[in-house]
Design brief:
By secondary structure, the chain is mainly beta. It folds into five domains: about 35 residues; about 80 residues, RNA Polymerase Alpha Subunit, Chain A, domain 2, CATH 2.170.120.30; about 100 residues, YbbR-like domain (RNA Polymerase Alpha Subunit, Chain A, domain 2, Beta Complex), CATH 2.170.120.40; about 90 residues, RNA Polymerase Alpha Subunit, Chain A, domain 2 (Beta Complex), CATH 2.170.120; about 130 residues, RNA Polymerase Alpha Subunit, Chain A, domain 2. The protein contains six helices and 39 strands. The strands form eleven sheets. Strands 3, 6, 9, 12, 13, 15 and 16 form a seven-stranded mixed beta sheet that branches.
Amino acid sequence: MIRFLRSLVANIALLVLAFILALIIWVNAIRDQDPVRTQFLQVPVEIIGQPDNTILQSPTRRQTVQVVFEGPSSTVNSLTDSDFLARVDLGTVPLGTDVSVPIVVEAREANVNIQTSSPESLVVNLEELVTQEIPVTLDLRGAVARGHSQGTPLIDPPTITVSGPASRVNPLDFARATVFLNNERETKIDNPQPIFYDRQGRVASVSGLTLSTEQVQVTVPIDEAADFAEKFVDVVWTGDPAPGYRLLSISADPPSVLIQGSPTQLGQVIRIETEPIDINGLTESFEQKAALVLPAGISLDQDQELVVKIEIEPLVTSATYTRPVELLGLADGLEAILDPEEVRVFLFGPLPALDTLLDEEVRVTADLFGLDVGTYSLEPDVNFPERGIELRSIQPAQITVTITEAITTTAGITDTASLLLGLPLAQGDGGETAVSATPLSSPTPPTFPTTNHQPFASPPQPRKINRLQTM
């Protein structure tokens, strides 16, 4: 029996050893076909477990961890960072302090082993997210104008809601809005941007914090004092400008003055008039000092100089001039025909200037310099004295110029009287035509048949100009 048991144990041992050897051989064969490979990847760190009403102060940017892992080549070669989990749990992290929290890395594939990860932990700072109402105070600088009183300023809104990390919001104490008064006479409304201060009185930055508003509206009521009033100045004038001129505007500097008197008297005054200013026959603008006519019981708050500015300008109108076109630069041996010979010039400007403008002062020219035989369409030039006058248009805007060679006469007539009497002409030695005639003892005037028809008038021909003579 004992021998049987020993034999059975020996056989089982041999069987187990054979199985192990077979498994080793099988694993080695598998490894030879799909060897184990080591690789690394950068995996983003995921933050989990953050409590409500908290804000992560650090890290301020997304963190990654380098993971070194191994596994079969067929598996490792296809892995990406999404096949791994790298997490930092903030569920038990205390608030307001830097804490090192471990980074837990896991692989989604079962046959992948993680060797190392770097870094192994992450320093975080988790703060409570708080909201606080910060009061707005007014820093009012300057003063209102004399004779005016300032009411109680109004700030809207009176507080600013600030949200953010407790370490930045809790030290805030107040916000200051500054408004400047520069002799204001009316209610001033301004929209300054408040500056925040901490509990030590130092300027505090609110960059990155959430504000309910970045500006406030400040209203400073300003009224006239009971015995003072601001009244506009009314300039009084007599006469009219010279003919051809008009009164453009009259203004006073300053446009209003501060007067003093009883409330009843002040209420009866609408405007303060100046002494009359004579503008009769004036042709230009001018400035002068003026005196005020104050009602009984009313006085100026303080003596001041009043300057009246009177603007006078000439009336503007238009005028039409029909002028011949003068040719400039026509070459020798050429002649030109214009169509039309005259143009209409429309000018616009001050009436006095146009009234004194002579026809001869308006010249219309056409420049033919460098032009040869041919027909041209040219835009004439108009010249006239400045005097504030401007050219509005020319009609027609273009003229036609036909340039031809000048016709020269080779035969000279030496006796016009003989030609008119019908006498024959004789040829001279030089090839010229000479008049040969027998004197008449008693010449009789030629007679013409009597007729009731009017003499035939040939149609007018365009003017021919060989060359313009200019002075």
